[in-house]
Amino acid sequence: MGENQGRLAAVVLAAGESRRMGQNKMLLPLGQESVVRRAVRQVLEAGFDAVWVVVGRDAERVKAELQGLPVLIVENPRYPEGLGTSFRAAVEALPANVEAAMFTLADQVFLTPELYRSILEAYRASRPTLVVSRFGEVQAPPHLFHRALFPALGQNPSQGSKGVLQQYAAERVEVPMPESALFDLDTPEDYREALKRLAALP
After folding, report:
1. To 10 degrees, what angle do helices 113-126 and 35-44 make?
2. Under a CB-based contact definition with an 8 Å cutoff, are residues 182 and 140 in contact?
């Protein structure tokens, strides 16, 4: 890390209401661990300087799932208002020495440390304003933002980073991701599919 370069952080967003799931999906078992612990562990293995986790619903239970992992916790009491509030809580908590941060959703259960690392390496290569993931024709998280964009994140409580991604599209670097990794847990059907896919992994 050069003397003029700051720390590169990752933020795992794990604060949602899980309305469509009918229960808190962060606490669901997936293999030998919960959804949230699996997601955070994958990010930790990618090599970021620090990992932050934003919690909301069942905050104490979610924090208990992360016991023993070297993460920093941000509580977002406004989580029922929408994803944007979790972005806001994170950027307000990130210290001034964080140069850029990757944001990922904890229910993206088939992202691997290697895929997260590809985002980190794309940033290190040219230090762009924005690094976005592209799964075939779909642009979806994780995305990495230089701290110059932090003030714009989460300005709309119901929206995550969509406006920022549109506004700074010309400055982005894209990282291709396998379409099979474009999967998140929203419904009980998604959960059953995730268990089936996990069981089929080598």
Report:
1. 40
2. yes
